[in-house]
Design brief:
The longest helix is centred in the N-terminal third of the chain and has 11 residues, at about 5-15. A hairpin with a 5-residue loop joins β19 and β20 (about 245-250). The protein folds into two domains: about 5-170, Jelly Rolls; about 170-290, Jelly Rolls, CATH 2.60.120.10. It contains two helices and 24 strands. Strands 1, 2, 15, 16, 17, 18, 19, 20, 21, 22, 23 and 24 form a twelve-stranded antiparallel β-sheet that branches. Strands 3-4-5-12-7-10-14 form a seven-stranded antiparallel β-sheet. The protein is mainly β. It has helices at about 5-15, 150-155, and strands at about 20, 35, 40-45, 50-55, 65-75, 80-85, 90-95, 95-100, 105-110, 115, 125-130, 135-140, 150, 165-170, 175, 180-190, 205-220, 225-230, 235-240, 245-250, 250-255, 260-265, 270-280, 285-290.
């Protein structure tokens, strides 16, 4: 993605300067829960887009097996064709429209839709339409410059693939779960619950809508962390000891494995979120706490 070697450097720099992981200064902090704010924005694709980091391998406080950031591409621009060797890519559009190439298949996706690209495929993402393209981007295993093949190296790459993208047009059509009040949560992608789909990821993703005042009951995830990315609205993540982290749209909160927490809609309009659980969520892993 033309991040090349600068990605690791920029990620480290943002942790030192702006910080990928920050606590909310006006509220109580907890070592096992914190708000993730975007690091510095830097240009990618020869200036055709920009990238901001939430999670990178250099952050020792966050134990996950992926990198996560947000990409913006202006209309008419595109990522150059490239391969990510050994890593899959999860793309969730939060704005705009895209044409996404995956080897010999090209799909058109819109705001709210998800595409998962298998590892090693020739891929590129083009912003189409009048609005700029924005998407949440997850790469697993974590991105490094060593896994990216592009330019002249792409033409000389010895492996030929014919991968097919996994497209999820409506995250709200997944398996429905009841974990609270005035909220709906749906499975978007889960390799354990849907083995027949051959999802090339080890984490799981769920989509939730919370009405004003809606909340998820106290729970803990045995041996798994959870990252909650707020698409619209604002939520609060809270713990039994009184710690509260307020998370506005475009930000995220991360909770450590086995941490008891709940979350609620803190605003006066519906909030929508993505929940990333690593390793993948299962009913047995989720423990309700009174």
């Amino acid at each position: 993605m033309h991040r090349v070697g600068c990605l690791i450097f920029v990620c480290t720099l943002t942790l030192i300067s702006a910080g990928c992981l920050t606590g909310s200064p006006s509220q109580e902090e907890n070592d096992s829960i914190g708000m993730l704010t975007l690091g510095s924005v830097f240009p990618i694709y020869d200036g055709q887009g920009s990238y901001s980091m939430f999670i990178c391998p250099e952050n020792p406080e966050i134990l996950v097996n992926y990198t996560l950031g947000r990409v913006t591409i202006s209309s008419g621009n595109a990522t150059p064709p490239h391969r990510l060797i050994g890593s899959s890519e999860f793309v969730c559009l939060t704005g705009g429209e895209a044409k996404i190439r995956c080897d010999n298949t090209t799909v058109t996706v819109h705001e709210g839709e998800v595409v998962i690209l298998p590892d090693g495929v020739v891929q590129s993402i083009t912003a189409v339409g009048d609005a700029e393209l924005r998407y949440v981007d997850v790469i697993q295993p974590p991105f490094s410059s060593a896994i990216q093949v592009t330019g002249a190296e792409l033409a000389d790459f010895p492996v030929v693939t014919d991968g097919v993208p996994i497209v999820i047009h409506d995250p709200g059509e997944g398996i429905e779960w009841d974990i609270g009040s005035d909220m709906m949560i749906y499975t978007v992608a889960n390799p354990v619950l849907a083995p027949e789909r051959n999802l090339p990821i080890e984490y799981s993703v769920a989509y939730a809508e919370l009405l004003p005042g809606g909340s998820a009951d106290y729970n803990r995830l045995t041996g798994a962390s959870e990252l909650i990315y707020v698409i619209t609205g604002e939520i609060e993540v809270f713990t039994p000891d009184g710690s509260v982290v307020r998370v506005p749209a475009g930000s995220a909160a991360w909770t450590a494995p086995d941490q008891v927490k709940g979350y609620r809609n803190a605003g006066d309009s519906m909030a929508t979120i993505l929940s990333f659980v690593d390793p993948a969520w299962t009913p047995e892993r989720s423990i309700a706490v009174e």
